[in-house]
Amino acid sequence: ANPDGAASQQRGNARGVDLNRNFPDSWRRQGAGTRLWSGPTPASEPETQGLMAFLRRVRPDAVLVFHQDFAVVDTTHRRSAQAGRRLAQWLGLPARPVGCPGPCSGTLTGWVDSRLGAVALTVELPGTKRVPDVDRAANAVLSLARWLAD
User: Fold this and answer.
1) Which residue from 117, 60, 123, 114 is spatially nearest to 90, judged by alpha carbons?
2) What is the chain's pLDDT, residue by residue, as a tens digit (150 residues)?
3) DSSP character for 114?
């Protein structure tokens, strides 16, 4: 749902809202006028509302969010930590809780974890995209899906 911030040197949608600060879980108004603006109210953005409606409808067992470029699998959410460690191993990345520049509030994974009760992981990919890395990532996601199904 977010634009590719690394490619465009920005994080916000067309109204300048960082969608990964706009979800209603632990939301707080912060960063107005900066690249980390949470928006005027929780779930104020159409992208956030659409993603929430979609996820409520499909009720996923897991949600994976791919960001770049810290090269780590975030294991912040306790319910998701074991799955995150597995995924990190398959991806060849470290696994650890990842902090935010400032408070982590209004995140998609926080909302999925607390409101939907699903595994919620953020994968911070390395900054480079090579074909073997893409193949490994695809295989890791398939391995995680099989592991979750067992």
Assistant:
1) 123
2) 665 555 666 778 889 899 989 999 989 999 898 888 999 999 999 999 999 999 999 999 999 998 877 889 999 888 899 999 999 999 999 999 987 766 678 999 999 999 999 999 999 888 776 666 888 989 999 999 999 998
3) I
Residue 117 contacts by C-beta under 8 Å, 6 or more apart in sequence?
A: 79
Read off the tokens for 42: 């929780």
- Does this model's pTM top 0.90? My answer is no
Specify the long-range contacts of residues 9-16, CB closer than 8 Å, at least 24 apart: 10/35, 11/35, 11/36, 12/37, 13/45, 13/47, 15/39, 15/45
Supply angle C-alpha 35, 40, 44, rounded to 5: 100
> Burial of 17 by CB count in 10 Å (0-12 exposed, 13-18 middle, 19+ buried)?
buried
Q: Which residues pair with 123 in a beta bridge?
A: 66, 73
